[in-house]
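@channel anyone free to eyeball this complex?
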Amino acid sequence: AQKVTQAQTEISVVEKEDVTLDCVYETRDTTYYLFWYKQPPSGELVFLIRRNSFDEQNEISGRYSWNFQKSTSSFNFTITASQVVDSAVYFCALSALRGGYQKVTFGTGTKLQVIP
Amino acid sequence: KAGVTQTPRYLIKTRGQQVTLSCSPISGHRSVSWYQQTPGQGLQFLFEYFSETQRNKGNFPGRFSGRQFSNSRSEMNVSTLELGDSALYLCASSLDMGQGNSPLHFGNGTRLTVT
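replying in thread with the prediction:
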C-alpha cells in the first residue's frame, strides 16, 4: 500500500525566513515517482516538481529546493527567503504503475502562511 | 495550450437534488481524475477515466458517478445530495503514457454548497 505523510498541518513564517515542508512516504514499489503541488487560495493545484525513485539528486529552482532521501523515505521541500506569494497549501504525492494505470496517493497537505 | 477547464465554478443545491459537474482536459490528455476536497478530509480520490473507461474508483457511495466522452471531456454526477457533499470538486488530467509518472494538471475546481 502507498502512504504519504505530511505531519505539518500548518506553518507560519515571517517573510524572508526559510521554511522546510516535510514529506515522508511508504511504498513497496521499487519504481515510483514523487511530486509536489502548490494550491494557492484560488483553488487550482499547480505541479511543481517530479522525482523518480532512482534519482536522488537534490534539485534547486530559484528559491525552491527539494531534498530526496531514499534511506529515510523523505522528499522535503525548502523555500528560501519566503515571500507572501508562497502562502498556499502544499501537497506531496506518490505515484506508481499498478495494473496498467497510474495510482496516485496524496498527503494531507501543509498550509503555509507567510506573514509580511 | 488551454488548461483544464471546470464548469461551473460555483453551485448551490438543496439536499436531495442532483448535480452534474463538467471537466474539459488539456488537449491530448486521455486520463481524467476527480477529487473531492474538504477541510477535514483533504483530497479524496473519486474516480479516474481513460479512453471512456473507468479504470479506478475511490471509496465513495454509488451516488457519485462519472463518465468520459470520446473527446476526453468528463462529467461527474452526484445524486440525492447530502449536506456532507459540500466540497471543492477538482478535476485533473494527465498524459498518462503508461509509465506511472505523469503529473496531474488540475482545474480551478467547482465549489458545491448543499443547503
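from a first look: Chain B touches chain A at residues 31, 33, 42-43, 45, 48, 50, 55-56, 88, 90, 92, 94, 96, 98-109, 111 (CB under 8 Å).
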